[in-house]
Amino acid sequence: MKRNIVIATLTAAALVTGGTVAAFAAGDDDTTAQRQASAGAQVIADRDDVNDRDDDANDDRTATAGGDVTAAEAIAAALKHTPGTAVSADVDDDGADAGTWDVDVVKGDGAEYSVKVAPDSGEVLGAHRDTDDGNDSEDRAELAALKGAEFDAREIAKAAAAKGTVTEVGVDDDNGTVAWSVETVKNNVTSEWKGALDTGKLTQDQDD
Question: How many domains does the chain have?
Answer without folding.
Answer: 2
